[in-house]
Backbone:
């Protein structure tokens, strides 16, 4: 067996810090902004069920695989895949997983930063008391005033990108540990408070029914793909972010244990956010399928009515920005690590280069909500008629590139890497747990991803099949 490598970028100081950093990466806009609105767009319960199945059958095994490959290779995903493929006597083709990940990371960060900018803008609205006593119509107007103004969006997008680049430039370790340790539990607490508020809206049950009673007639084939894509997105899988974090993981840490913890926390935050939001939606006659503005058009109503709303509202958006920040840094870490390894760049230079490129691409998302709101770049293709640049980037990355990357990672971990290597790296022995994972990653996980892709082509009806079961 190859001797143990170490990473030139350093290591997390403990397994606990890795859990914090990876949870910081996983918990972000995906949980609080995206999960509720795509659930609303796709009819609720059935979508949530498919999403949870995807987390269990696809997300968890692939996360274990990514962490394992990362720790085994101890380099940026591109170089890790090159090295591991060489050691396994496989084709150098596998390094393209790393390349596709770098490109996906760029694309995601470009729009992620714009949305995080909305949250930044809302910090100031909340603190200024702008939500006091607002109703459904006013929050909608407030939201469209923001997104219809490209200059304002640009300013917030720029600020967020600078914040992200600054952290990556210093190295993802410094500062991150302490901040995540305090702010994550706070975010959790404020979500619980919001759920408490939602319980008193008089529409709590309706919200729960919407989220947890599956009605498969509401779930389209595209909805199934979006649910799977989101399982990748929310766990930061399929592009090497978790792989690069795994490459800084101390030797002894248990990969299965950390993965379960991260997946559980991530899922909990998403469910809490949705449970808080939908009762507010129904109580105020808002539209569950309102799209990307959903949380910005619901949470302010709650803060405007509850006692201490200015404080809680400000805190909520601060924590949302923070959650987005700890996620965003993981989106460019693979590219930065690669530039440092292969081109001898200083971290600072590499981070600025990547940040500037992603910022430029972000302009297309900024304009997707105003100047180019009616411009559909691939509008000539069926299924893309309603997708602006933002919609397109989101769809291509979350629903196509990440699942494809994940599929390749599963195949590599299950079929290309020698079995002894994964037994050795996972440290689970060769018992039931290891075999369970090995079976999933070889057969069930790739099959599930493949079936969802097949579902979209119309050759299979997963929604219909699940409808028979539940
Ligand atoms: N998981 C984060 C969220 O839910 C977003 C994110 C960070 C991400 N790093 C990633 C998504 C890597 C895909 C790949 O907000």
Residues:
């Amino acid at each position: 067996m190859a001797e143990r490598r170490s990473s030139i970028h350093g290591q997390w100081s403990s397994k606990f810090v890795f859990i914090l950093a990876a949870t910081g990466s996983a918990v972000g806009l995906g949980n609080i902004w995206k999960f509720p609105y795509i659930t609303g767009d796709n009819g609720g319960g059935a979508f949530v069920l498919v999403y949870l199945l995807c987390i269990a059958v696809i997300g968890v095994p692939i996360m274990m695989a990514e962490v394992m490959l990362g720790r085994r290779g101890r380099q940026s995903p591109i170089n890790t895949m090159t090295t591991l493929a060489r050691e396994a006597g496989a084709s150098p083709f596998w390094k393209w997983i790393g390349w596709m990940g770098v490109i996906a990371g760029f694309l995601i960060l470009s729009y992620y930063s714009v949305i995080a900018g909305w949250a930044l803008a809302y910090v100031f609205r909340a603190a200024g008391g702008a939500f006091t006593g607002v109703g459904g119509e006013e929050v909608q107007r407030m939201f469209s005033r923001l997104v219809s103004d490209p200059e304002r969006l640009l300013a917030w997008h720029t600020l967020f990108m600078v914040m992200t680049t600054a952290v990556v430039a210093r190295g993802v370790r410094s500062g991150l540990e302490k901040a995540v340790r305090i702010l994550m539990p706070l975010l959790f607490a404020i979500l619980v408070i919001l759920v408490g508020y939602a319980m008193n809206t008089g529409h709590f049950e309706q919200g729960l029914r919407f989220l947890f009673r599956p009605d498969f007639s509401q779930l389209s084939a595209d909805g199934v793909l979006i649910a799977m894509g989101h399982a990748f997105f929310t766990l930061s899988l399929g592009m090497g972010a978790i792989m690069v974090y795994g490459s800084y993981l101390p030797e002894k840490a248990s990969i299965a244990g950390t993965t379960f913890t991260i997946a559980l926390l991530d899922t909990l935050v998403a469910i809490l956010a949705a449970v808080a939001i939908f009762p507010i939606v129904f109580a105020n006659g808002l539209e569950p399928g309102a799209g990307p503005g959903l949380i910005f058009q619901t949470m302010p109503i709650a803060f405007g009515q509850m006692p201490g709303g200015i404080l809680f509202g400000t805190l909520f958006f601060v924590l949302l920005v923070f959650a987005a920040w700890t996620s965003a840094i993981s989106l460019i870490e693979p590219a930065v690590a690669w530039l440092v390894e292969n081109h001898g760049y200083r971290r600072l230079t590499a981070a600025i280069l990547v940040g500037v490129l992603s910022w430029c691409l972000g302009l297309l998302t900024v304009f997707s909500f105003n100047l180019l709101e009616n411009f559909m770049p691939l509008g000539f293709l069926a299924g893309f008629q309603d997708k602006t640049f933002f919609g397109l980037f989101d769809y291509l990355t979350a629903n196509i590139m990440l699942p494809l990357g994940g599929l390749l990672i599963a195949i590599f971990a299950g079929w290309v890497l020698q079995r002894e290597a994964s037994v050795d790296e996972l440290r689970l022995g060769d018992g039931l747990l290891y075999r369970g994972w090995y079976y999933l990653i070889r057969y069930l996980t790739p099959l599930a991803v493949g079936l969802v892709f097949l579902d979209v082509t119309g050759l299979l009806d997963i929604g219909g099949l699940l409808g028979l079961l539940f």
Q: What stands out?
A: The mean pLDDT is 94. The chain has 19 helices and no strands. Residues 25-26, 28-31, 108, 233-234, 236, 239, 241, 327, 330-331, 402 surround tryptophan (CB under 6 Å).
